[in-house]
Automatic annotation (TrEMBL):
Organism lineage string: Bacteria, Pseudomonadati, Pseudomonadota, Gammaproteobacteria, Alteromonadales
Pfam family, one: PhdYeFM_antitox
Main function: Antitoxin component of a type II toxin-antitoxin (TA) system.
The protein's name in its UniProt record: Antitoxin
UniProt similarity note: Belongs to the phD/YefM antitoxin family.
């Protein structure tokens, strides 16, 4: 089973001291007075997380379409694509 790794935690003052050398390969939770204030993470990881969220949204929409009966068979799909010229002659 997949478990969520807890981020490293630091205070605002600790963050200020470490900012130039801080490793943000994993998210860092910055707290103030014991309360979460910011989450700092590597830009590449942030982008990957955004892509994962977009994929999850697409899956949720697809599941909703399936439940509503908005589905077609693969034969119908390919026939429709061929009719629209979306498939080249090499894939026929």
């Amino acid at each position: 089973m997949y478990t969520v790794k807890r981020p490293r935690v630091t205070t605002v003052s600790g963050f200020k001291k470490e900012i130039a050398t801080m490793d943000v390969n994993e998210p860092v939770l910055v707290t103030q007075n014991g309360e979460p204030l910011y989450v700092v993470q590597d830009p590449a990881q942030y982008e990957a997380m955004q892509e994962q969220m977009a994929m999850l949204k697409m899956i949720a929409l697809a599941e909703k379409d399936v439940r509503a009966g908005r589905v077609v068979s693969s034969d119908e799909l390919f026939k429709g694509l061929e009719e629209k010229g979306a498939l080249d002659d090499h894939n026929s």
